[in-house]
Amino acid sequence: MSKTENKKQEEEEESSTTTNTMAWPDIEEELVIPELLHSEGVKKLHMSIQNEWDYLQKSACQTAAGRALWKHVIHDPLAHLFAGETHLRNLHTKIQRDRLNNAREVSGVILAVRTLWFDTRIQAALDSFDNDATQVVLLGAGMDARSYRLNCLNKSDVFEVDFPDVLQTKTSLVQAAVSSREELKMTAKSLIDVATDIRDKDWFENLKKSGFVPEINTVWVLEGILYYLSHTEAMQVLNLIAEKCKVTSTVLLADFMNKPSASLPNSVFHFYSDWPDQLLPSLGFSHVKLSQIGDPDANFGLLHNPLNLFNKLLRLPRTAQIHPDDGTPCCRLYLVEASGSPPPDKSITNNVSL
Ligand SMILES: C[S@@+](CC[C@H](N)C(=O)[O-])C[C@H]1O[C@@H](n2cnc3c(N)ncnc32)[C@H](O)[C@@H]1O
């Protein structure tokens, strides 16, 4: 094949990837709002979310909207109800605009990939434990519905930690779904609300008071939370979890922003780490695996286009802060799994003392 033919084929491949293999969410032209969101009780709950919650709390509904509109890859029976009409409409409009512009990155795709990555890694972590008794702690649980959608949680006590308003409203929304006779089955063994602010010193005491047992194998899920904390607060949380590796088998699943992501103009984010794969071992975790959106274990067939932002970043060294092609900041989101366990003799002692 001549050079020109080669180039032409490359261009054709490029344009076919851009237009055909882009994984668009399967959304309707007109957004269909489920009937339950029109009921008086649910409308009132969402009105108070819109009027009374701050941006931090509202971020819980934004992520639920992502899962609702990427429903062809995430089956979340509560996502529409948790998101509410405003957040569904906002994201729907953005996706429609992306479609019109034939965008390389579709709004919500990061969220979809992140959700699927956490789902996969939670299951793998639970499978890795040699004991049936397990706990899963969702820090900044927001409108996470895993206790109603992941079967792998059927032997786990799930602790959802968030602000009191968020957890109370979530409970009321679930009650509305149940009383509307929507088929809703809890898939977790148990679900315990822990209404506390993880910036406060006593948050871990509150978790224990709610029934959390430090000696039981635990998966800690920190999805979409660390970067809302200050550096000191985030490090306190990470240190506390790392300490637990000395007591029991512990898995931490967390997403980290790098500095350019947290430093964009008008950013609401604070904590970042450019090298979480170095930070976490220094705190006491023994195994750390870092993935980036677009990596083989973090694309779930949703990021075919080689020219999209994530795939372009994968080709650059992680030290790069500015993209050499266009001068834009290299904003990365790291998906990180870290684990640790006490030395074997110590775990025997712990078992005996249980
Ligand atoms: C972006 S949402 C993520 C929710 C959920 N993890 C998910 O991925 O869908 C962040 C959540 O963290 C909660 N949050 C933020 N700061 C918190 C704090 N200091 N203590 C407890 N919860 C907090 C917010 O209320 C919100 O529900």
Automatic annotation (TrEMBL):
Name a GO molecular-function annotation. methyltransferase activity
Q: Where is the composition biased (Basic and acidic residues)?
A: 1-10
Q: Where is region (Disordered) located?
A: 1-24
User: What domain of life does the UniProt record list for this protein's source?
Assistant: Eukaryota
Gene3D superfamilies from the UniProt entry: Vaccinia Virus protein VP39
Its keywords, alphabetically, are: Methyltransferase, Transferase
Q: What's any GO biological process attached to this entry?
A: methylation
> Of which family is this protein a member?
Belongs to the UPF0677 family.
User: What is the designated name of this protein?
Assistant: S-adenosyl-L-methionine-dependent methyltransferase
Source organism: Brassica campestris (Field mustard)
Source taxonomy: Eukaryota, Viridiplantae, Streptophyta, Embryophyta, Tracheophyta
